[in-house]
Amino acid sequence: MEAVADTCGGKAGALGALLRAGLPVPDGFVVSFGAYAAAVRDLDLGRCGDGPGDPGAAREAIEARPVDAAVVAALGRALDGLGDPPVAVRSSAAGEDTALASAAGQHESFLAVRGVGEVADAVRACWASLFSPRAIGYRAAAGGDDRLSGDLVMAVIVQRHLDAEVAGVMFTPAGPDDVTRIEASWGLGPSVVGGTVTPDAYRVAGDGSVTRAVADKRSRLDRQGTRLVVRDVPADARERPAIDDATALRLAELGGEIAAVFGGPQDVEWAIVDGRIWVLQARPVTAAPPPPASPSGASGTSAALLTGTPGSRGTVTGSARIVRGPGDFARVRPGDILVCPFTDPAWTPLLRIAGGVVTETGGVLSHAAIVAREQAIPAVLGIPNATSSLHDGTVITVDGTAGIVTAADA
After folding, report:
1. Of 187, 179, 189, 215, whose CA–CA distance to 200 is shortest?
2. Which of 107, 161, 367, 391 is catalytic?
3. Other C-beta atoms within 10 Å of 77: how many?
4. How many Cβ atoms are within 10 Å of 214's Cβ, its own excluded?
5. Among this protein's residues, is 367 annotated catalytic?
6. Which end of the chain has the smaller Cβ count within 10 Å, N or C?
């Protein structure tokens, strides 16, 4: 509850503010900037990322050093105070979750972590993720200068892990005529924020009316002991709404309370356990999504036209580049259109050079969609079989405002 952004980063500071306002945040504690600063004080992190040396040197130096015994002891005491449950270990960097840059998904987070040794390792990995290729690429795209690495500091949030039955993301309204946008799917939240599932989409208007588009939610992420497992969703639940209209209204009301705390529209991650809504994160909305496509823009394909969900405004023409994983990264050239099953946050460096993005799954509130909007890259999401419907090297046009992809040879 004492966490503030100046010593604990934007993410932890926001959670502290929500707790002080009496809103439902899982209990936990923060490893502050001071612990990180002490851990790296005598390491040479002076030039990294865009400097002349190996971009991974700083990361490797942090990963190679054991966490100080005093920090480990403090972690043990704090975990004992929680009852030593499974926990979520999440980054909270300086400059993260601000009105200018979300850094959505750019630093490490770990779920289902158990025991002081594993928690200490996760804390160290969060520290080191300041210097991951995706974080370096994100800062470079945002105009940051990694040579001033003294300005880069990382706090770490350790919270009780929630075994969510349903989880998702909510954008609160930007103005009196705007709506609350909610995306929801079964299981833990990384399926939604990571874009590996196409979630249900809800719009809650100021008069309380709810409209929804129910997706075919084929997979879910759950905790199994200290592992995360991806399971198939039973056929009878795939197209069942993840939340009902009453829950959408409850979320919208909670979103209004959160926005009131911070004085502006918020990007909120949430989870539901035993019917209770919990807030996992809140940060300013940095780039609003386009409005939904008209009914004629529902997901589907034709010989030269593919339609999906508008993810990021604008129109671009370029060569389709089929990207199924990191092994394909080297094939991407400046101006290429990424066509992929989904976009993992680790793919952020590609968004610095890509002209646009097309995905088979994912929602408009996912991390990758947020980063695409921040970087003004047109994106269309949720086109089934896009990687097989489009051919590598084909010239395509992506209209991220309308949610349409056209190709000469689809």
Report:
1. 215
2. 367
3. 10
4. 15
5. yes
6. N
